[in-house]
Write a structure and sequence with these properties.
Blueprint lengths: L35 E2 L2 E2 L2 H15 L7 E5 L6 H12 L5 E5 L10 H11 L1 E25 L7 E11 L4 E6 L1 H9 L6 E6 L5 E7 L12 E2 L7 E11 H12 L3 H6 L8 H16 L3 E5 L1 E5 L6 H10 L7 E6 L3 E3 L6 E3 L4 H4 L2 E5 L5 H14 L3 E2 L1 H13 L2 H17 L4 E2 L1 H10 L3 H16 L1
Parallel strand pairs: 3-14, 3-17, 4-13, 9-10, 13-14, 18-19
Antiparallel strand pairs: 1-2, 5-6, 5-8, 5-11, 5-12, 6-7, 8-9, 15-16
The chain binds adenosine-5'-diphosphate and magnesium ion (MG).
Amino acid sequence: MVEIEELSEGPRMERIGAHSHIKGLGLDEDGKAKKIADGLVSQIKAREAAGLVVLMAKEGKLSGKAVLLAGPPGTGKTAIAVAMARELGEGVPFIQLSGSEIYSAERKKTEVLMEAMRKAIGVKIRELRNVYEGEVKELDIKTGSSPYNPFVKVPQEAVITLKTTEEEKRIRIGPNVAKQLMEYGVTEGDVIMIDSKDGRVSKVGKSSESFSYDLEAEQVVPRPNGPVLKEKEFVYVLTLDDLDRMVAKRRGEGIFSLFLGAEEKEIDPEARAAVDQQVKEWVEKGRAEMIPGVMFIDDVHLMDIEALSFISRAMESELVPIIVMATNRGITKIRGTEIESPFGMPLDLLDRLVIITTDKYGEEEVKDILKIRAKEEEMNIDNEALALLTKLGAEKSLRYSVQILGIAGAKARSKNKEKVIKKDIEEVATRFSDVREAVNHLKKYEEELLK
Ligand SMILES: Nc1ncnc2c1ncn2[C@@H]1O[C@H](COP(=O)(O)OP(=O)(O)O)[C@@H](O)[C@H]1O
Ligand SMILES: [Mg+2]
């Protein structure tokens, strides 16, 4: 599949800036949590439990189940979900959505969920291709008049001599390849690769053997060895959603793309089925490997019964990511019904849960977390400032103090100050409210309106 080469962005990491300090779960070989490791502080029981879940996932024993992180706000639920994805390996997709985010006027909520799920599954595709690779020794491009416009000259064919440490080969190439060579500005001394089948050209760099006056920082590479025509392995990581889009686009290249041009909002189920089948075939042939990632659903109590049932049904399928949910609610109404239930979840979902609870932090722990954040944002912070932030964290919320730290740091940096001091924190903290303050503020006005 040639199309695969067009999108090789790899899995995306979304909105996890506040958790960039987290590198893993910080466990030792026996799965015991170290007090501070991999950017995580304390919350020992939850981290060890998360470690066991990762083990289960790696052994394929988590199928049909989902993880629920239950705990008050700011107790590291999101942090632990991020850590789990990191623990699963490099490049493992992590997709985050909130229970409230699936409702939009334009798309069905099941469609939003399906898309998120497929974004959270990576496919590592290996492909062997025959390529001509070598340093360009001679290049002769013949041009002629364009068939569409006689006044315009276009490349018609080219003869190119490619050189490796072992041999030299002269090849004749057609107009499409010649055009690419011109577009890329390929000249003698460049190391290039031409796909033998589809003629795609890639410029690898400038050969270290060639002499060039070009002072631009071009990538210098050794002259390739081996034969000019050779088999090479290429590896791409795409998500199922990337593949869906490529297939849907190809199918849509009929009437729709003529009129709409833009991407369609929904991907039809047939395109997804085709992708699933293709991927399974690749896996069987050893050409691809699945990389299930983490789909993290925050505030899961905001999802209604339909969305929740969709998720528990999806867990049955083979191509499913590791589903990690979080909530800070105990018994509450299942949205869309009058039924009260733990975490606002229907029974079929409750039955599938692996539950991990998180506890509130003490002052010492808040302080340690803030220290790690300060380091992550490369800022110096003095003891007084840290003490004040810790106090704010304990009184208001951890998230609030992490935020204030970030803002104070950005402000100090913009003024070229070396250190964040207590005054900086005070200044920022008086300007921004935490959630409770903001709610009280709005209540005040609501009461006035009712008078
Ligand atoms: N145990 C921890 N170790 C390190 N950082 C943490 C820990 N718990 C929370 N954090 C950080 O504190 C902030 C708030 O935590 P978060 O994970 O958003 O809490 P929750 O999801 O439970 O509301 C985030 O920046 C998070 O990365
Ligand atoms: Mg969270």
